[in-house]
Write a structure and sequence with these properties.
Blueprint (H helix, E strand, L loop, with lengths): L1 H4 L3 H5 L2 E8 L1 H6 L6 E3 H14 L3 E13 L2 E11 L6 E13 L2 E8 L2 H7 L4
Parallel strand pairs: 1-6
Antiparallel strand pairs: 1-2, 3-4, 4-5, 5-6
């Protein structure tokens, strides 16, 4: 997340396995044109471009990290995006479930609430 917040694509991509599958549920719900599922490093390039170019501001504030076993981490936080042409700002809680293997993210799913993410890993 540090590399993402610094807008450092190469460092961010270095933390992601080439076989990644990222289910961008939260972005798909709020942003027209999102693909929903992004695969591989090429998919990560499209996701990065979508988040960094299609929107003026994309911020993820980490509030809590939890190790939930099975190589999974839950990140609970907030995200903020602003449409470049409309100027409309959208803020929301966000929850991510990351599956990490050999130090790289192999799967990610994002949710528009902490409750959805916690429920998905069986914590509520």
């Amino acid at each position: 997340m540090d590399a993402y917040q610094r807008d450092d694509f190469d460092s961010w991509l270095a933390t992601i396995d080439p076989s990644i599958e990222w289910q961008a549920v939260a972005i798909d719900r709020v942003a027209e044109g999102a693909e929903g599922v992004y695969r591989g490093h090429e998919g990560m390039r499209r996701l990065w471009h979508f988040l960094r170019v299609e929107f003026d501001v994309t911020l993820v504030e980490t509030q809590e990290l939890r190790d939930v076993g099975d190589d999974r981490i839950v990140l609970l936080g907030r995200f903020r995006i602003r449409g470049p042409s409309s100027g409309i700002v959208f803020e929301s809680p966000v929850g991510y479930i990351f599956t990490i293997r050999d130090g790289k993210t192999v799967r990610a799913i994002d949710y528009l609430s902490h409750e959805e993410a916690l429920k998905a890993v069986g914590l509520i």
